[in-house]
Amino acid sequence: MNATVNRQILLVEKPTGKLGPEHFRLTQGAIPEPKDGEALVRARYISLDAANRAWMHGATYRAAVEANTVMAGGSIAEVISSKDPSLKRGDIVFGDTGWQDYAAVPAKHLAKMPKLEPMTHLLSVYGVAGLTAYFGLLHVGKPREGETVVVSAAAGSVGSIVGQIAKIKGCRVVGIAGGKDKCHWLTSELGFDAAVDYKDGATYKALRAAAPKGIDVYFDNVGGDILEACLSQMNNRGRIACCGAISQYDGVPSAHGPRGVPGLIVVKRLIMQGFIVMDYMDQRDTALKELQSWVASSKLKVQEDVIDGIENTPQALIGLLAGENRGKRMVKV
């Protein structure tokens, strides 16, 4: 790599409909100089998440991404130089570097990562995806042995881990995913008890057959019609962990969310809670120890979808929103 050039991908225009390649532009900038308290880092793997698309709509748990700025995104990066005593050259960190080779980032906004191989696991099972699955399921969903857990976007980075943790905890697990191949993969490779193909169009009926005793815990990644189908089949005192709303991110959001929600929540005494993984970072070490032990004992399989080249990042995000990936999608810079 030419160490005098910083390749950057800009969001040149905020999409009003579906995200397309025309909304991005690859450009070259200068390598920034870190100020006091900052570190210069070089991105190694850029994380791709449905949330990238949500940030274009407006402020969420972070500021909105504005037109003609470097597209925002987290990455695993290597410290090149540091003007903060907490970081040194060669340290591996996770932070919001944006879609570019190099970034100068305040050290307090960088999380120092353990030196693990493969490094990609720091973005998947030991990164935001794995921690989101862990805390969302265990701290918000609170599954008990023998209960039925349903997870949507089950073949994605978070959903595929949620289902496997629920199995480890002794639950019956049903995944909802798009396409027969993904559904077969969930049951044959990841050990899900059943899988529902939402592209078949008969989600409600298929869900009833897959979860005949009703749903105790629903881990929601998509919102919209699938959330509605699951809500109506929740058992009394069921828990719903609201992680994302992919169905609402790309293109024009549907006019309605789930209908009949207030009545169902009251009658069935449901708990429906949103969460952000950052809320649980004080417990990260405990979670990582448990995740590492499950991976080491092959109870938890790690699926990653690594795409080469920073220039392919826009297309990789567009593909992720269309459901192309299995497991955690990332770009090797």
From TrEMBL:
Listed GO MF terms: oxidoreductase activity, acting on the CH-CH group of donors, NAD or NADP as acceptor
A Pfam family this chain is assigned to: ADH_zinc_N
Enoyl reductase (ER) domain span: 20-331
Transmembrane segments: none
Family matches, as SMART domains: PKS_ER (SM00829)
CDD domains with a match to the protein in the record: PGDH
Keyword terms of this UniProt record: Oxidoreductase
Protein name: NADP-dependent oxidoreductase
Organism of provenance: Bradyrhizobium macuxiense
